[in-house]
Amino acid sequence: MGVFIDKLEAYGADTEVGLARFAGDEGLYERCFYMLIDDENFATLQEAVAAKKYDEAFSAAHALKGVVGNLELAPLYQAVSVAVESLRASKLDNIEAEVAKVAEEYEKIKAL
Amino acid sequence: MRDGNSIIENNYEAQMKGATVSKILIVEDSPINRQILKKILDDSYEILEAGNGQEALDVLAENWEDVAVILLDLMMPVMDGYTFLAKAKEQKNYASIPVIVTTSSDSEKDEVKALSSGATDFIRKPYHWQIVKHRVKSIITLRETAAMFNLIKYDQLTGLSSKEYFYKMMDETLREHPDREYDLISCDIENFSIINDTFGYDTGNDLLKLVAGVLTECFSDYLYCARLNSDIFILLVPHQERYPDGYFQLPVDKTNERFKPSRIQIDFGVYHVVDDGSTVHVSCNRALSVIEKIKGNFAKNVTYYDEDFKKSKDFAHKITATMEKALHEGEFLVYYQPKYSLATEEIAGAEALVRWISPEEGFMNPGMFIPLFEKNGFITELDKYVWESVCKFQRKAKDEGVQTYPISVNVSRTDLYNLDVPAFMTELIKKYDLEPEDLHLEVTESAYSEHPEMIIEITNRLTDLGFVLEMDDFGTGYSSLNMLSDMTFDILKLDMRFAQNHMENKRQNEVLAFILELAKRMDLGVIAEGVETKEQAENLRFMGSDLAQGFYFAKPMPEKDFWELLKNL
I want to staple B186 with a disulfide (CB 3.0 to 4.6 A). Which of B24, B129, B269, B336 is the partner? Predict the structure, then answer.
């Protein structure tokens, strides 16, 4: 188990499941992780909510959710899921806070 | 599997190829997700990728023949999953490729919608790689199995039903509609093997495909149509009491319009399916067997199965089933018909003729069973029995001091093919301590003319061994005059029955005179068979025939009567 896995583990990711999904290929897991970091949907989500374009926001959040789930980044996944549900149901009273939480988690993983 | 029909009915040829390298098309906009799916699957399959529905359609256009499964994400830009799914299902070539949609874990609605839009299955994200692998594998296996069923359901060359499928569907149809009446129409392309030999198998196959198309065109009310094997087709159609004139000529004309290499004749048999407890196989066999009535008949190309035909077929079956036992149990009897010298009116020989006295059928003349035995080869067993019976008779006569004369036996052309007749005859003569001259051998002219070299070789050997050969039914075969000089035989047998009124018919008389003259010049003996009146006998004597045989002199008689005849000479 490499450094990368340890760091993810420390963050709270379920690396055992994640690694299994990548058929044990740590290198690929890592590459995909970095692809996530570069995913534009994070920015899109923030901007869309700011501009109150909630449909766009939903698409971005939903797309993120799938990928984040596949990488088993649990805390980030939680944050994104909450946002997705709110946007889906159009329960927007708390949306800014929820999206901020996503941004927070995003910063955390970027720092890994 | 949803939408099973489109899998089974479309593109069976493409599906047949599916067993080579299976490709999987992953349609997913997130590169991460694509990577993951690719990782899970690329050790077993070749992966094609597309980032949205439009790209996916482009990839499919190039690769559809090899794509075994499509993994489809529903949420995509440019063209989303549902749109892609709809477009793919519209395309004849792609419609049958199974689609597994990848859905989020919280979208049961999506799952339902995807399935009802034509997706085969769904996989939830986050991907559980074992589930992905298994689902993909089982769908591919299912599809290959369906393709196998296609192989079973369809005749690969013509696209008609396969034999098995036809039988199955006919059976079901008859069960489901006991109140409806159906006909089976069988078709046979005459001399199809010659087409193959002359023009090659590709042309032969083209003809088969052509005929398949013509049949379905002409018999457009058919329920099922199959190619049973090589050039034999069969259709199940609603019953018609009478088929219009020219109905069965139309398919032949259409075929000849489109097939250039050679003129084609197609024969049809019609069987009105009856509910007599027979299986569909039996019914189909009836439709097929009746075609033999018109094979080679240029005037007719359709025939109907009727009671008479059924009776003759049943009779033939019965004969075949009982013939061995009959031989074993002595039901075949040898009768003798004496031959008389026209000059002296004294007996000069006899012909051995076989009769069958069956406990079931009673007294049977050779005409009722010999043709069948010649076809199925049993004639040789029967002939060996007759030859041996005659040898026993001759031996017994010599032992008891009864005057013996040559007795002629029939040697069928089948015997000449099946058996080393010279060797067998030599053994037989030796076994009974007889001379070759005691047993004359009658071979029909048509046996000579069908395979002249082979027959000439055998008859030469027989003559060398001292046997006397009689050519039977002279004038009924196809030999040309100059073959006569090559053929080895000693005696000509003429059948007078074909020239019934030759007394009145001057021309026939002239022909007869000519034959007799020819025989004299070639130093051949002549026996006239079927002499029934005194006038005939007189005329023949006058014209120079040596011997005569017929009702006028004596009918064929049982062995013991012939024995008495000889004893009392």
Answer: B269
Tell whether B144 and B46 lie within a shared domain.
Answer: yes
CATH classification code of A3-110:
1.20.120.160
For residues B557 and B490, membership in a common domain is answered with yes
CA atoms within 13 Å, Cβ hemisphere of B269: 26
Q: Would you call B128 and A21 a contact, using CB atoms and an 8 Å cutoff?
A: yes
In a domain, B443, yes or no: yes
Residue B115 lies in a domain: yes
- pLDDT, tens digit (0-9, with 9 covering 90-100), for B485-506: 777 789 988 888 765 555 566 7
State the smallest CA–CA distance between residue A23 and chain B in angstroms.
Answer: 7
Give residue B453's identity as a one-letter amino acid code.
E
**Chain A: closest CA distance from residue B36 (Å):** 6
Residues of A in contact with B128 (CB under 8 A): 21
Q: Which residues of chain B have pLDDT under 70?
A: 1-21, 105, 476-483, 498-505
Q: Is residue B436 located within the same domain as residue B555?
A: yes
| Boundary-marking domain end, from B130, B150, B170 | B150
Does B300 lie in the same domain as B321? no
Judged by CB atoms closer than 8 Å, whether chains meet at A21 and B32 is answered as no
pLDDT in tens, B64-110: 888 889 999 887 777 888 889 888 888 877 888 899 998 876 777 87
What ipTM, to 2 d.p.?
0.80
Q: Does B155 fall in a domain?
A: no
Domain residue ranges in chain A? 3-110
Q: How far apart are CA A55 and CA A52, in angstroms?
A: 9
Mutation for B interface: A16, A17, A21, A56, most B CBs within 10 A: A21
CA distance B23 to chain A (A): 20
- In the sheet where B266-272 sits, what is the strand order? B224-229, B232-238, B182-189, B266-272, B302-304
Work out how many domains chain B is built from and give that number.
3
CATH at B363: 3.20.20.450
- Specify the pTM: 0.58
Are B296 and B302 a contacting pair, CB within 8 Å? no
Closest CA to B9 of B200, B149, B179, B173: B149
Subunit contact A63:B75, Cβ cutoff 8 A: yes
CATH of the domain at B23: 3.40.50.2300
| Residue B255, domain member (yes or no) | yes
Q: How many Å apart are CA A8 and CA A106, to the nearest integer?
A: 13
C-alpha span between A13 and A9 (Å, rounded) = 5
Quote the CA–CA distance of A50 and B78 in Å, as a whole number. Answer: 24
